[in-house]
Write a structure and sequence with these properties.
Strand content: 15-25%
InterPro entries: F420_OxRdatse_Rv1855c_pred (IPR019952), Luciferase-like_dom (IPR011251), Luciferase-like_sf (IPR036661), SsuD_RutA_monooxygenase (IPR050172)
GO biological process, one term: alkanesulfonate catabolic process
Protein name: LLM class F420-dependent oxidoreductase
Strand order of the largest sheet: 1-2-3-5-8-9-10-12
Keywords: Flavoprotein, FMN, Monooxygenase, Oxidoreductase
Oligomer: single chain
GO molecular function: alkanesulfonate monooxygenase activity
Helix content: 40-55%
Shape: globular
């Protein structure tokens, strides 16, 4: 099991906060650092100050400040950017990192943040997914077009004329693509066609196993030949004793009992047990959602007492 740290900077974080976590992630031996792509905080227990930070600008900075960990998004919103410029940004950050980027990509869902920042938001879920599928086609197509050849696309929502399809990412033919969600039909199909990794976010063990099963079926029914990696994202709250667990839960506006039921919470031994059950369901990677970025001792505890038992 590979453990990755997952941040939600829109809840309130500076670039320096994220850099401190990235350096700790690397120093402590975690596999990667991933962040959300949101522009508006969620919930009443945080202010969101000093305000959101752009996911790919942040990752570009972290790419130059780290040397080993994988870097990426869970998930970049297809509604935020046009596919051509997004392909350029991700390819450039991949080169800046020496080939360590992974591209988590979703259809977009949080309507309020679109309204807050003047971003068009298609009301119909079908249209969002249609646009998302076209973007997946375009971005992966731009990256995989051989140097010296041009790329052209004619879709319902996006049209690209003959273009140079540059720059290329350092990883060939492209950075790994991560698709996530628990949609019963279209998400598994898109994952089977486009993704290197399928991720189930913040779901129960039973829901996660069922979603993995649907995607395995879609992979088996597709013509793909490459393997699929299965992963999950879970909120993290671990402590050496009940007082420490309660303190960390309070800092993120949650209750220990609720976190134990709906995340990775409790003692290190409790985490090892639950991570083992996710592994039995087929998860090969876990994204640990760290909501209090000031608590680097939280990461150290996982690195010292959990990671060695699940490696």
């Amino acid at each position: 099991m590979r453990l990755r740290i997952f941040l939600e900077p829109q809840q309130g974080a500076t670039y320096e906060d994220q850099l401190a976590v990235a350096r700790a992630t690397e120093d402590l031996g975690f596999d990667g650092l991933f962040r959300s792509d949101h522009l508006l905080h969620m919930g009443d227990h945080v202010s969101g100050l000093p305000g959101p930070s752009d996911a790919w600008i942040t990752l570009a900075g972290l790419a130059r400040e780290t040397s080993r960990i994988r870097l990426g998004t869970l998930m970049t919103a297809a509604t935020f950017r046009y596919p051509g410029p997004l392909a350029v940004s991700v390819a450039q950050v991949d080169r800046m990192s020496g080939g360590r980027v992974e591209f988590g990509f979703g259809a977009g869902w949080y309507e309020d943040e679109h309204a807050a920042y003047g971003i068009p938001f298609p009301k119909a879920g079908r249209e969002r997914f249609d646009r998302y599928e076209e973007q997946l086609d375009i971005i992966t197509g731009l990256w995989s077009t051989p140097v010296g050849e041009s790329f052209r696309y004619e879709g319902k929502y996006y049209r690209l004329s003959e273009g140079p399809a540059l720059p290329k990412p350092q990883q060939g033919p492209r950075p790994p693509v991560i698709i996530g969600g628990t949609g019963p039909k279209r998400t598994p199909r898109l994952a089977a066609v486009f993704a290197d990794e399928y991720n189930v976010p913040f779901s129960s063990l039973e829901e996660t196993a069922a979603a993995f099963g649907r995607t395995r079926d879609a992979v088996a029914a597709s013509s793909r030949t490459g393997p699929m990696t299965y992963s999950a994202a879970q909120v993290l709250c671990v402590g050496r004793d009940e007082a420490e667990i309660a303190r960390r839960a309070e800092r993120i506006g949650r209750e220990p009992a609720e976190l134990r039921a709906n995340g990775l919470a409790g003692s290190p031994d409790e985490l090892v047990d639950k991570i083992g059950r996710f592994a039995e369901a087929g998860a090969e990677r876990l994204y640990l959602q760290v909501l209090d970025m000031s608590d680097l001792d939280h990461l150290a505890l996982v690195a010292e007492q959990v990671a060695p038992q699940v490696a």
